[in-house]
From TrEMBL:
<dbReference type="Pfam" id="PF00583">
    <property type="entry name" value="Acetyltransf_1"/>
</dbReference>
<dbReference type="InterPro" id="IPR000182">
    <property type="entry name" value="GNAT_dom"/>
</dbReference>
<dbReference type="InterPro" id="IPR050832">
    <property type="entry name" value="Bact_Acetyltransf"/>
</dbReference>
<keyword id="KW-0808">Transferase</keyword>
<protein>
    <submittedName>
        <fullName>Acetyltransferase</fullName>
    </submittedName>
</protein>
<dbReference type="GO" id="GO:0016747">
    <property type="term" value="F:acyltransferase activity, transferring groups other than amino-acyl groups"/>
</dbReference>
<dbReference type="InterPro" id="IPR016181">
    <property type="entry name" value="Acyl_CoA_acyltransferase"/>
</dbReference>
<feature type="domain" description="N-acetyltransferase">
    <location>
        <begin position="17"/>
        <end position="162"/>
    </location>
</feature>
<keyword id="KW-0012">Acyltransferase</keyword>
Length: 162
């Protein structure tokens, strides 16, 4: 089985379905940890509806979609920042496909796309409960940096020169 990664418009049906899966998982993990409940379906719909993801389109961003054996499997997005860096966001691989090498390929493709857009550094924010993400980023050379936003969900801010 092989992985392919291509740029895709964030409003495509494939990207929208993967975004919904991503948001459901990270939201459920948060609420289960902090409130012992899953995400309320109405809340999920409100959050998904207000996300246009237009910041993940050229010339200032890009959304990458990974496929495994031709099937939609994950995403990674980048968006340029005013300081010359790019932010890595929405890195996600469907749970049943984790451990098959897709996440490092997605991050490498995002790094390449950020370089092509002129970024000199890639930065990201993540939560402490997303331990798989923290492990992945450390393995790929990302280091803790000073926070660049006031996001209440950002427990860790990481960066890597490109």
């Amino acid at each position: 089985m092989t992985w392919t990664i291509t740029a895709e418009h964030p409003a495509s049906p494939t990207a929208a379905a993967l975004w919904r899966a991503y948001y459901t998982e990270v939201s459920d993990r948060y609420y289960l940890l902090h409130e012992n409940r899953r995400t309320d379906p109405a809340e999920l719909e409100r959050e998904v509806a207000k996300e246009t993801r237009s910041d993940l389109t050229p010339p200032t961003g890009q959304l990458l979609v990974a496929r495994y054996a031709g099937e939609p499997a994950g995403t990674a997005g980048i968006r340029l920042r005013p300081d010359g860096s790019a932010e890595l966001t929405r890195v996600y691989v469907r749970e049943e496909l984790r451990g098959k090498g897709g996440a490092p390929l997605l991050v490498a493709a995002a790094e390449s796309a950020a370089r092509a857009l002129g970024a000199t550094r890639l930065v990201l924010e993540t939560r402490k409960d997303l331990t798989e993400a923290l492990t992945l980023y450390a393995r790929l050379g990302y280091k803790e940096i000073a926070p660049y936003s006031d996001d209440i969900y950002a427990d860790h801010t990481l960066g890597k020169p490109l």
